[in-house]
Amino acid sequence: MSENPILSVEAVTSGYGRVTVLHDITLEAGRFGNVGLFGPNGHGKTTLLRTISGLVAPKSGRVAFDGKDITGLSARAIVATGLIHVPQGNKLFPDLTIGDCMALGAYSPRARPHEAENREKVVKLFPKLAERWRQRVRTLSGGERQMVSIGTALMSHPRLLILDEPTLGLAPKIKDELCAAVMDISKGGVPLVVVEQDIEFLLELSRQLFLVDHGAVKTEIRPGESLEHSEIMAMYFGH
Amino acid sequence: MSVFSDIVFGGLFQGSLYAMMAVGLALVWTTIGVFNFSHGVFMMLGAYFAWQLVAFGLPVVIAFPLAVIVMAGAGWILQASVVRPLIGRPNIVLVVVITTLAAGSLIENGALTVWGPRSKQLPSLIEGNTTIAGVGVSLHQIAIIVITPLILAALWSFLNRTRLGLALRAVAQNEDASQLVGLNVTALYGLAFAIAASLAGLAGIFMGGYRFMNPSMGADPLLKALIVVVFGGISSISGPIFAAYLIGFFEAASNYYFGLYWTPALLFLVLIGTLMVRPEGIFAGRSRGLA
After folding, report:
1. Taking CB atoms and an 8 Å limit, are A107 and B183 in contact across chains?
2. Which of A46, A106, A160, B84 has its CA 20 to 30 A from that of B201?
3. Domain assignment present for A2
């Protein structure tokens, strides 16, 4: 892995309107490999991701992607750098077909030349999507919609993929399928930043973990400092 | 036979104008989620721009398309000035009703100041009259009946067959997700307004060719377009198109059998009846989105 962090967040304060969710949060990610974020709900993980991807403008602080300052850029400009965010939930575009979603994923000029090659990758990763290519997203199951979400992001030709709870609310069998697909993406050379409640999966996937609590990084776990499940649970619940 | 063709012809003609207006209203609603109450003023403005360009001595084939293009710019400007600053506010629907009504009123009175109250008329698209199936009609009206479906079909294929159209449909469904695939949401909002304004402007040009124009000529078509979109459902652009023709035929039939004065009352009666049975409109799907 590279010497420099692919993503760095420096003293970022962010939130919605007058509500501040992130307080001076700092983290450097991707120096060692995939990054996992965990922590109790409502403590800023999603807001952190939304701030990184430009959906929420930070009130102060700095966000850099691959050494380039992306603070305050529009979401569109950030997509153009190759930082792709798969948001939580699977609302997506309910009345578009899977094929439409994939075409949209390749909308940015950066991704367009790779459209055919990325489509092949997505179909290989999620063969189910190919069978339902002309089906509307609203008619798909939760797991399939999550596949469309991730597939759309892959169509954007990511240099870094941010996943916000990719397995939230899925049945165990589908969940395993998705976890395997996410591992495949990682093996394919795309670094990941993942928020996930399933700690087992997160431990398997990531080499660096951050516990986000009260809008700040409470603990960072680096490679070599491997942790047991029980210890993480203790961090989660035992204050 | 003549009665029947009278009604069919009248329905097609009115339906075309309503469809042209209603589609723009639906396009703005589906993409931005606001009702544009200056839509009728767009219609008026299109007609006056065209009149002004003709008065400058431009031939109709240049003046009319140019007026439509100018209207696209006007739509964009209106969006940027009275809609865009409000996007993201929780009460946007209501606030935009006020801002677009206000802008409409300003523009209408501006037109009154610039062009005066005296009625004007545009040249017809095609001069002359003909008789079809026992009904005497003007070629101008025939042209409108033929051109409108072509334009609506072009709009449909733009929305469904092009990447930019896909982007417009997407932004209607999920703004966050649209941003995360790199769509320029503000530009797409502007585009929706620009297209809507051009279509309204074209409807104005159509209308100015067979009826006298005045600065408040857009008020009644706006009302009709509102009825059409409520009746047809605002979740797509095909719903309002069908509804526009349906209402056109209804009006033509009602005008013939019950007279001009009863028609609006009957129209509202049918509308209320429809909404009691299908509150989402007769052709509506379940959600907001262009299809």
Report:
1. yes
2. B84
3. no
